[in-house]
Design goal:
Blueprint: H1 3-16, H2 25-53, H3 57-87, H4 92-125
Helix pairs in contact: 3-4
Length: 126
C-alpha cells in the first residue's frame, strides 16, 4: 500500500476513532504506551478542572454520570465482542480475558452508580 493511501487511511481512522488490528506485540505495546501517555498528559487538565469545579457533592454527580454512561456503553459493546468470540469458537484464553473485562466493567458501572447515589444522599442529608 502506498504511503499516501496509508496516511489517508490513518487520518480517517483517527478522525472517526477507528482502530486497526495489530499482528505484533511490539506494535501493540507502542499503541498502549501512546494511549497511556496521552491519558496522563490530559489528566493534568482534568485534575485542574475538577479541583476548581467540584466544590460540593452535587457538582461531582454530572461527571460521574457521564463517565458511567460511556463505560456502560463500552461494556455492552464488549459483551457483543465476547458473544461473537464465543460463537466463532475463538480460543478459550481470549474468551476468558473478554469475560474478565466485561465482568470488571459491569462492576465499575455499579460502583459509579453507587457513587452517584451517594452524592444525592449526602446532599439530602445536608
Amino acid at each position: 500500500m502506498s504511503l499516501a493511501r496509508r496516511s489517508l487511511m490513518e487520518a480517517a481512522a483517527a478522525r472517526f476513532g477507528w482502530r486497526r488490528a495489530y499482528g505484533h506485540t511490539t506494535q501493540i505495546d507502542a499503541l498502549l504506551t501512546e494511549q497511556s501517555e496521552t491519558a496522563y498528559t490530559e489528566a493534568a487538565d482534568h485534575a485542574a478542572l475538577a479541583t476548581a469545579k467540584h466544590d460540593d457533592v452535587l457538582a461531582v454527580q454530572p461527571g460521574v454520570l457521564d463517565v458511567r454512561g460511556r463505560i456502560l456503553a463500552d461494556v455492552l459493546y464488549l459483551e457483543g465482542v465476547l458473544t461473537g468470540a464465543r460463537n466463532r469458537g475463538l480460543p478459550p484464553e481470549l474468551i476468558e480475558r473478554l469475560e474478565d473485562v466485561v465482568d470488571h466493567g459491569h462492576e465499575l458501572t455499579v460502583l459509579l452508580a453507587d457513587t452517584v447515589r451517594t452524592t444525592a444522599a449526602l446532599h439530602a442529608a445536608s
